[in-house]
Design goal:
With about 80 residues, the chain is mostly beta strands. It has 1 helix and 5 strands; from the N terminus they run E-E-E-E-E-H. It has a 5-stranded antiparallel beta sheet, with no helix packed on it. A hairpin with a 7-residue loop joins strand 3 and strand 4. It is globular.
Length: about 80
């Protein structure tokens, strides 16, 4: 999968966690393969380094956008767009 731009908006994206943040000593949370992650607004300072956080399935702590290699956004089905 080619590299994609770093997300600038909340949503779901394909990504590989390559530099985990806050990982307990002796554990390795780096992704073996591409997985879907959730990017969310973590604070109101859009220019701050922690504006966007990332939830990774099975990882207890929030990770940060620079910790990943990014793939494409996961498309939202048109039915869900109309519901919001």
């Amino acid at each position: 999968m080619p590299r994609f731009p770093t997300p600038t908006e909340p949503g779901h994206y394909w990504a590989k966690l390559v530099h985990p943040t806050r990982m307990p000593e002796g554990e390795d949370w780096a992704s073996v393969d591409w997985e879907v992650v959730q990017v969310f607004e973590n604070c109101l300072d859009r220019d701050g380094p922690e504006y966007l956080g990332v939830h990774v399935p099975g990882v207890k702590f929030v990770q940060w956008v620079p910790d990943f290699v990014w793939g494409p956004a996961v498309p939202v089905p048109s039915d869900l767009r109309r519901a919001s």
